[in-house]
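Ligand: zinc ion. Inputs:
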Amino acid sequence: MNTLPNCPKCNSEYVYEDGTLLICPECAHEWNPAEAQEVEEGVVAIDANGNKLADGDTVTLIKDLKVKGAPKDLKQGTRVKNIRIVEGDHNIDCKIDGFGAMKLKSEFVKKI
Ligand SMILES: [Zn+2]
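Predicted complex:
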């Protein structure tokens, strides 16, 4: 099973790891996947209406969400300012008043 990304230059799928670097045998491109993530535009978050979200957007929650370890739920309609798009299942990084830093799923928010 190959879980490595394709080569960003030639899209080859024969990329292999060498220490912290990824190397493409077809075009000889070498890169550090940790650095590549920051410049890559491949991280995409789509809200409940199908709109693409970007860093700095303001969104509202479309449903109540349970928060692990918090005494109360996040309420539908809660406004979340200045989101940051990150990779992963919970692809929005944000701070919410009264809750602090947390991660949300983009499918549970909509862009204002
Ligand atoms: Zn390549």
